[in-house]
C-alpha cells in the first residue's frame, strides 16, 4: 500500500576502516583480513556464539524478499528473468529515480492496489 516503494536486501559486507573492522571483538567478528592495497571489503568469521542466529537470519532473507515482492506487486509484473533485472534497475539505480520522480510513475503500484 506504499506508492513507489522500493527496497534492497543485501548481505553484510565488512568494510575496511570501519568501527567493526577496527574493533571486531566488540561485534562478534573474528579473523578480519584485508586483501590487497585497494580492498573494497574484508573477509571475516563470525564468533561461534552468534553464528547460528546469523545463519537463521540469512536463511530467512530469500523468503522475506519474495514476500515483499508479492506484497508490493512486483512478482506478477513480468517473468522472473526480466522481472529480476527490472527490479534491480528500478530499486538500485538511477533508472528507478527517473520513474519515481514522475507523478504518473507507472510502477508506483504495480499490483494496482491503492
Q: What is the strand tally?
A: 2
Spatial strand arrangement across the major sheet: 1-2
Computed over alpha carbons, the radius of gyration is 19 Å
Shape: elongated
Straight-line N-to-C gap = 6 Å
Portion in strands? 5-15%
Tell me about the biggest sheet?
A: 2 strands, antiparallel
Helix content: 40-55%
The mean pLDDT is: 81
Characterise this structure.
The chain has 114 residues and is mainly α. The protein is 41% helix and 10% strand. A two-stranded antiparallel sheet has the order 1-2. Helix 3 crosses helix 4. The radius of gyration is 19 Å and the shape is elongated. The protein starts with 18 loop residues before the first helix and ends in a 13-residue tail after the last helix. The relative contact order is 0.15.
Name the descriptors:
single chain, 114 residues, mainly alpha, two-stranded antiparallel sheet, 41% helix, elongated
Quickly describe the structure.
The protein is mostly helical and 114 residues long. It has four helices and two strands.
Amino acid at each position: 500500500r506504499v506508492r513507489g516503494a522500493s527496497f534492497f536486501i543485501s548481505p553484510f559486507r565488512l568494510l575496511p576502516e570501519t568501527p567493526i573492522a577496527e574493533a571486531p571483538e566488540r561485534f562478534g567478528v573474528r579473523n578480519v583480513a584485508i586483501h590487497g592495497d585497494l580492498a573494497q571489503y574484508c573477509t571475516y568469521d563470525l564468533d561461534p556464539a552468534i553464528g547460528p542466529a546469523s545463519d537463521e537470519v540469512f536463511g530467512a532473507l530469500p523468503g522475506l524478499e519474495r514476500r515483499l515482492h508479492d506484497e508490493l506487486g512486483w512478482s506478477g509484473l513480468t517473468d522472473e528473468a526480466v522481472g529480476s533485472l527490472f527490479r534491480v534497475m528500478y530499486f538500485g539505480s538511477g533508472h528507478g529515480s527517473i520513474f519515481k520522480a514522475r507523478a504518473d510513475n507507472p510502477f508506483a503500484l504495480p499490483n494496482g492496489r491503492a
